[in-house]
Amino acid sequence: MATSFKLRNFSNPAILKAISRPLMIQFLQRYAEFFDGRHFNMNAYEELDYDHLASILMSPGEDTPEDLLDALFFIDEMSLPGYYDELMNKMSKAGIDMGTLPKPTVGDLAVTIWLASPSLLESIHAEQFMVRAKKFDSFLTTCSTIPSFTFPAAATVQNLEGDLNNWFETKKRGRGTKVFVFMRDDIAWFLVRHGEPYKREGTLKNGESSSIFYRPEKFDVLLYNPEIGEFSIHTSTMGEKKAYCKFFGRHIFGNESMFDIENSGDKYSLDPLRVDSSDSLLCTDVDGIDEIKLCELQFRHDASIYHIEIHKADDVFEALESQFRCIPEGASLLKASFKITFTNSIRPRTVSIRPPNVAIFDRESDNLLVNTWLEKRGFININKESIDGETNVVLAVA
Predict the structure, then answer these.
(1) d(Cα 56, Cα 105) in Å, to the nearest integer?
(2) Cis link prior to 272 (omega < 30° from 0)?
(3) What digits encode the pLDDT tens for the residues 199-248?
(4) Residue 169 to residues 74, 173, 233, 251: CA-CA distances in angstroms?
(5) Can you state the angle between helices 106-116 and 21-28, rounded to 10 degrees?
(6) Residue 130: per-residue pLDDT
(7) Measuring CA to CA, how many Å separate 162 from each of 90, 169, 196, 248?
(8) Exposed (0-12), middle (13-18) or buried (19+): which is 26, by Cβ within 10 Å?
(9) In this predicted structure, what is the pLDDT of residue 398?
């Protein structure tokens, strides 16, 4: 673990000094035996040696307590200025008192939350991590009518974690799977934290060559849209996608065949680009989007010889028109990338669509707005029979 353990903020003594001294001592005293062994003096009446503390935190060894490593990781990750308001809001909702500190720093907030409820800081970190996912494979429900969705109870999540633990263990990824559940804009978000296969890396121990053996950590992000019965998955292997479809269907909906990768319908179609040309990029009826341009298009002429054309330009339609060309009628459209200018952003962001079910975002928070536009222009194939049926979203815990 030592060679893979990196702290972005706690490597800087100035960052450590920004944390209230009494809070820092309270945190360190939980691991007094470890710090005594590293000859670190945490006497409440003496100045802390922050340079020495930073060097200790940046070089964990075999004697470093596992829960200290967890604490350092989550506190370090959440000690960035951008998380201040979020941490304050979560503390208020959880009823955690900041004590006598009149003007706490973001580091103070992170340490205070960890001291009061480590699982809460872990959950906040998980929620922030979700926005980093960019590529999703999407699958529509196989049910003729979209079933109601109920925010899963703790027991349901635990049973789901149990099945995932068993599956990951058979794939040499160990146990310890954790599922976090959030609701955002009526979309259910699931963050799955699990292990990867063991890794071995070379190290130096007491000046001698050695090695460490550890299991890396991995995060997968899953979204469920109750309105259209769509399950979107951000992960790296087909086996994981199938496992998520099976076990989430089983535990969240009572139907492990609800999402079938093998027989799932195509979510995306690029035909509007050929049929409607530049009119397919209209966005005046989507609040929050100011302009859309096609910046890349890939299409295949003949599958037997795999003849593919790739066009890249600031405006592909304008570039094709200048050459008196258009998208060939018989070509298979493989991928399209769009530069989208959002109302609240100066610079455009890129969204790529690769049929049948892959979307790639510069920023995952754009997902809902972009999908609204895609649906209005006909880029999304919707099961109208399913959507016309009743869809009931229940946010209370069952």
Answers:
(1) 22
(2) no
(3) 877 766 667 777 777 788 888 889 998 888 889 898 888 999 999 999 99
(4) 25, 5, 20, 19
(5) 40
(6) 58
(7) 28, 11, 17, 12
(8) middle
(9) 34
The residue count of the chain comes to: 398
Joined together, the tokens standing for residue 185 give: 């804009």
Residue 363 and residue 351: Cα distance in Å, rounded? Answer: 9
Q: Do the beta carbons of residue 341 and residue 289 sit within 8 Å?
A: yes
Strand partners, 138: 232
Three-state secondary structure string covering the chain: CHHHCCCCCCCCHHHHHCCCHHHHHHHHHHHHHHHHHCCCCCCCCCCCCHHHHHHHHCCCCCCCCHHHHHHHHHHHHCCCHHHHHHHHHHHHHHCCCCCCCCCCCHHHHHHHHHHHCHHHHHHHHHHHHHHHCCEEEEEECCCCCCCCEECCCHHHHHHHHHHHHHHHHHCCCCCCCEEEEEEECCEEEEEEEEECCCEEEEEEECCEEEEEEECCEEEEEEEEECCCCEEEEECCCHHHHHHHHHHHHHHHHCCCCCCCCCCCCCCECCHHHHHHHHHHHCCCCCCCEEEEEEEEEEEEEECCCCEEEEEECCCHHHHHHHCCCCCCCCCEEEEEEEEEEECCCCCCEEEEEECCCEEEECCHHHHHHHHHHHHHHCCECCCHHHHHCCCCEECCCC
* C-alpha of 48 from chain center: 37
**Which residues in the chain land under pLDDT 50?**
1-5, 384-398
Q: Please, how many CA atoms are within 13 Å of residue 280, restricted to the half-sphere of its CB?
A: 19
Structure tokens at 26: 């309270």
Q: Which two tokens stand for residue 343?
A: 């109302």
* CA–CA separation, 185 and 225 (whole Å): 10
pLDDT score, position 129 = 63
Per-residue H/E/C for 207-218: CEEEEEEECCEE
d(CA 217, CA 74): 13
**Torsion over CA of 317, 322, 328 and 334, rounded to 10 degrees?**
-40
pLDDT computed for residue 393 by the predictor: 40
Q: What is the C-alpha end-to-end distance of the chain, expressed in Å?
A: 39
